Amino acid sequence: MLVEPKEMGVAEITARIVEALKRDTSLSNVIVRGELSNFKYSGPHAYFSISEKNCLLNCVMFNALYKLGHRKIEDGTLIKVYGSIRVYTKRGTYQLYAESIKEGTDYGVLYRKLEELKRKLRAEGIFNKPKKPIPQFPKRIAVVSSRTSAAFRDVINTVKKRYPLAEILLFHTGVQGKEAVRETVQALECADSSNADVVLLVRGGGSVEDLWNFNEEQIVRKLYEMKKPVITGVGHETDTTLVDYVADLRAPTPTGAAEMATPELLEISGIVQKNFKRLLSEIGTLISDSNERVSTLHAKLGSFSPKRLLALKMQKVQTALNDIYRFMATKIERSVHNVRRASDALKYAKPVRTTEVFPDKVESLWKMTKHLFLTKMDKRASEVMRIKGELKLHDPNEPLKRGYSMVFKGNSVVRTVTQVKMNDLLRVIFKDGNVSSRVEEVKSGRE
């Protein structure tokens, strides 16, 4: 059954929360461990926060100057705070009311050791090594981790989901304990000597002590010496170890490391399809441009073809004949006109004289007309013969009739031996057909 919600004011619900905290006696007498941040004095009191992983707890210490003896604790220090959890009703927040602060004996030593090693390695330039590129499409991925760890399972699941084409090579090692450092160094050496394209150093989340092996100098130096690119995925996003500084790429988690090492297969498929469509479009454009160019060349070739040249010559011959016909018609028309004019003059001339002279005039006129006609005809005939000679010179079949042949390489006429190479396919045209041949020998000169 659904319980009917109860209406309460802010003061009432805040009072209920206060009472609930009071009933949990463990929160009234607690030691909280974490990393100090934002420490500051305000009058005699101190305000600060402590954090662990991705969790933050605000703290206040009243009369801190007296309790701490004016001691200021530096941010980043790992501490243990004794006090009680209570609600600050004016802001509606809970916080730790601290009574004492003590640097954790184990945390403090580890933290100082970490800072000293970090300064030493930075001074040597270990952290400044140029980063190696991560392969975009790895064939084999080496994983340095425990075979039974959740981190290794996360890597397998992520790679299978994103990029199942890649092969996973496991180099087993312990991830904490006394022997873990030596085993991790050996596993990294083996991974670096393998045929893998990239190496993943992964470990799930844990406390500072759990992740401390990844701050050890031996492991950091081994990563610095490796030839293959390395991706680290140690702990959670808020965890940072020294191996992250020297790795070629740092991932927030083991799953993140697997994601950074592999492409997304669906994304690759989309990119391939996009590029394929673009390639088809470019090929279509090239084909279209080529067809247009072929059409242009074909049109140009037609303008220089023997058939067109013959047609032009025949047109000139026809024009010459038409000129001859027009010339003859003009001459005949003039002769007729002269005859008519002579006939009219005959009517007014003396009969005897006209009879005597007329035949001579007619004969003279006929001879002159005949001479002019024959002269013009000879001139036109000479021009026709000259044009026929030119046509014959341009006729590609004439050399073939005399026993010569024409050689083509593709669509081009072979005019010199320098155009021919060994194994070229040639087409030889004769007057009555053609043959295809393969070049077996090429000689220059007139051998």
Please outline what is shown here.
This protein has 447 residues and is an alpha/beta fold. It has twelve helices and 14 strands. The strands form three sheets. The chain has a five-stranded mixed barrel with strand order 1-2-3-5-4. Strands 7-6-8-9-10 form a five-stranded parallel beta sheet. It has a four-stranded antiparallel beta sheet with strand order 12-11-13-14, with no helix packed on it.
What would you note in describing this structure?
The chain has 447 residues and is an alpha/beta fold. Helix content is 49%, strand content 21%. It folds into 4 domains: 94 residues, Beta Barrel (OB fold (Dihydrolipoamide Acetyltransferase, E2P)); 125 residues, Rossmann fold (3-Layer(aba) Sandwich), CATH 3.40.50.2300; 90 residues; 38 residues, no CATH class. The strands form 3 sheets. The protein has a 5-stranded mixed barrel. A 5-stranded parallel beta sheet has the order 7-6-8-9-10. A hairpin with a 2-residue loop joins strand 13 and strand 14. Helix 4 packs parallel to helix 8. The mean pLDDT is 83.
